[in-house]
């Protein structure tokens, strides 16, 4: 019974995230106006419900290849010298604002989270199951357990 509650809760969360992402899609694209498409294509791709997962991940990896990635909270909290780690991090006021690690740190973390959340729903061809397809699978699993 507990598993059914967890699965139902997870599906509700996924549906809420999916709805929220579709509402933010237009504002994300508007905030990226004036930038070259190759710079931020991975940002636009994660907001596209019809994106090919593998193409989005490749675009993300290509963008960050050879660049310093943003500092994660794990990096800061696990450091022995937290003050020094903060000074070297992408949160330091000494870092240039046009440094990709500073400029795209929110989008970086959002993409990493999106990548982990979508991974279970990726089909062999790179298509991501829609929210309706996920709910249908959940309903089938629920009915088979009863």
Molecular structure report:
The protein has helices at residues 2-31, 37-46, 53-64, 73-78, 82-88, 100-103, 105-118, 131-145. The longest helix has 30 residues, at 2-31. The protein is built from eight helices and no strands. The chain has one domain. By secondary structure, the chain is mainly α. The radius of gyration is 18 Å and the shape is elongated.
List the helices and strands and how they pair.
Elements: H1 2-31, H2 37-46, H3 53-64, H4 73-78, H5 82-88, H6 100-103, H7 105-118, H8 131-145
Largest sheet entry: none
Calculate the mean pLDDT score and round it.
Answer: 75
Based on Cα principal axes, name the global outline: elongated
How many distinct beta strands? 0
The tally of structural domains comes to 1
At a glance:
With 146 residues, this protein is mostly helical.
Characteristic key phrases:
146 residues, mainly alpha, 8 helices
């Amino acid at each position: 019974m507990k598993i059914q509650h967890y699965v139902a809760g997870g599906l509700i969360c996924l549906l809420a995230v999916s709805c929220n992402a579709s509402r933010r899609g237009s504002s994300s694209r508007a905030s990226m106006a004036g930038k070259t498409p190759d710079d931020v294509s991975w940002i636009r791709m994660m907001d596209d419900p019809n994106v090919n997962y593998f193409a989005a991940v490749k675009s993300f990896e290509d963008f960050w290849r050879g660049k310093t990635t943003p500092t994660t909270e794990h990096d800061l909290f696990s450091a022995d010298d937290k003050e020094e780690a903060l000074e070297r991090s992408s949160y330091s006021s000494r870092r240039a604002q046009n440094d990709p690690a500073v400029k795209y740190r929110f989008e970086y973390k959002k993409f990493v989270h999106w990548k982990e959340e979508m991974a279970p729903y990726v089909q062999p061809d790179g298509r991501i199951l829609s929210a309706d397809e996920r709910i249908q699978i959940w309903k089938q699993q629920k009915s088979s357990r009863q």
